[in-house]
């Protein structure tokens, strides 16, 4: 009778252990599923952050090209102005017998020179405004890239922690089974 009693107690105890083990197994499975999902979400977020960084670099490149183009146009306008001034001076130093012709040419060159000066001023102003605007946007982008980079590092660290947890959980589960 004692043997049967002992066997029954052992059987009940073993069944309880099995039930506990199954419960831990289900919990571990659930936890691993959650962690795997978490990792997947974080990896997607990292991809998005990388994409954002590339977009920002592309915008920055476009701005640099635009500034270079504006600077070239500005230099061109300055050259045109210098050329017009030189031709006007040459004209004024010439001894023209035809005074009305000389006056007409001088008037024409002065008009050209004023137009060229205005163009240079406009382009200088536009260039200054664009450079200021681009510097501001570049600063904003730089700040955003730093933030995104920081987020990316954080997420990568979290993913590593999650993967470590999965490994530890799996090993604990295995050691429970034995």
Can you summarize this structure?
By secondary structure, the chain is mainly α.
Q: What would your notes on this structure say?
A:
- The protein is mainly alpha-helical.
- The protein contains two helices and no strands.
- It is rod-shaped.
- The protein starts with a helix and ends with a helix.
- Pfam families: KIF21A_4th.
- Residues 18-144 form a coiled coil.
- This is KIF27 protein.
- Pick out the low-confidence regions: none
Largest sheet: none
N- and C-termini, Cα separation: 31 Å
Structural class: mainly alpha
Judging from the principal axes of the Cα atoms, what is the shape?
rod-shaped
The average pLDDT score comes to: 83
DSSP strand content: under 5%
List keywords for this structure.
178 residues, mainly alpha
Strand and helix map with partners:
Layout (H helix, E strand, L loop, with lengths): L1 H92 L5 H79 L1
Helix pairs in contact: 1-2
């Amino acid at each position: 009778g004692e043997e049967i009693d002992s066997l029954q107690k052992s059987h009940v105890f073993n069944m309880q252990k099995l039930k506990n083990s199954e419960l831990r197994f289900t919990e571990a499975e659930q936890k691993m599923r959650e962690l795997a999902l978490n990792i997947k979400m974080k990896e997607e977020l990292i991809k998005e952050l990388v994409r954002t960084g590339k977009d920002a670099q592309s915008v920055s490149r476009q701005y640099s090209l635009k500034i270079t183009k504006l600077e070239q146009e500005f230099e061109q306008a300055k050259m045109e102005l210098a050329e017009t001034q030189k031709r006007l001076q040459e004209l004024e130093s010439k001894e023209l017998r035809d005074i009305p012709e000389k006056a007409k040419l001088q008037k024409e060159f002065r008009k050209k020179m004023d137009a060229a000066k205005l163009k240079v001023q406009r382009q200088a102003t536009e260039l200054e405004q664009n450079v200021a605007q681009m510097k501001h946007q570049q600063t904003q982008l730089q700040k955003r890239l730093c933030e995104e980079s920081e987020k990316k590092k954080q997420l990568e660290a979290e993913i590593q922690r999650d993967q470590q947890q999965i490994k530890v959980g799996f090993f604990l589960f295995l050691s429970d089974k034995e």
